[in-house]
Amino acid sequence: MLFNTHQFIFIFLPIILIIYFFTNLRIPKYSYICILLSSIIFYGLWDINFLILIFISIIVNFQFGSLVKKTGRKLYFVLGIFFQIFILGYFKYKNFFLENLNFITNNQFQIEAIILPLGISFFTFKHILYLIECYNNDYKKDYSLLNYATYITFFPHLIAGPLSKPKEIIPQLLKNSPISFYNFNIGLVIFFIGLFKKIILADTFASYATDPFSAVDGGYNISFIESWIAMFCFSFQIYFDFSAYSDMAIGIGLMFGFILPVNFNSPYKALSVIEFWRRWHVTLSSFFRDYIYIPMGGNRYGIRQQILLLLFVMLLVGFWHGAAW
Q1: Positions marked catalytic
Q2: CB 186 within 8 A of CB 41
Q3: What's the Cα-to-Cα distance from 293 to each of 23, 185, 278, 280, 305, rounded to whole Å?
Q4: The whole model's pTM is what?
Q5: DSSP code per residue over 259-290
Q6: What is the pLDDT of residues 246-256, one digit of tens each?
Q7: Helix, strand and coil percent figures for the chain, each rounded to 5
Q8: How many CB atoms lie within 10 A of CB 64?
Q9: pLDDT digit string (tens) for 144-184?
């Protein structure tokens, strides 16, 4: 169920908000349980079978995190990350690697029809962020399994981010703050700004970009002007599409009283490629910079290693976005 559908705007979101507000007023201590249950329903409406997968990943990762915090051993940290990467790799990349292996070796490994679970890339990275914070001892108090499950499944950022850190969300769950109608009003405005970007801007640009790309794919030679129009329209389509979804997620989060991190900062105003990547999909760029690029050396060991490392990180970013060359 997407945020711009009638079912979400007119049925799911109003009902969940009413139940949450009532729970927050009467028994605020358990208001986050309402969020957890609504997130389970939200995810289950897409495909109820994958509820088992996401909760297995939550329980296993929470146990690895507990072992990391208790023992401080790097082994549990590595095993936890390996477990999450294995799940992501099976569902998202298994067929891709088998197809390439068949092409290289002329073998006939069977390609299975695997349905990609909703939001698996995002909740896998959120699991990894939790393990990193456990390993770095970033927590002043222990969180319960229910707290952690609510953070992972929180439906505003479950499907397409922003990629929030546990220490950004879980403490907000535990505050039991009273309802803020100021935040609700701001969240509502941000949500409708995102909805406008999606329906009016992104979908309009998509209508002008799709036909030329489809024509080229079908063997038709489009003109010079048509190709540039298609390129610009696609550039704005993909920006407004993703920016819209991030705005709607942030707006929904504020309606419930949660502040989610900003994910886009006018990237097309950037004056350099470096600045562009700092502004586009901010939370994902920060993840790869802080937990892969910098720990592996960054720009500390000369320009040659820096270039190779940049190529490696961008290769990972590409694989994260989709299993295709």
Answers
A1: 321
A2: no
A3: 43, 39, 14, 17, 11
A4: 0.88
A5: -PPP----GGG-SSHHHHHHHSSHHHHHHHII
A6: 999 999 999 99
A7: 75, 0, 25
A8: 23
A9: 899 999 999 999 988 887 889 998 888 888 887 777 889 99
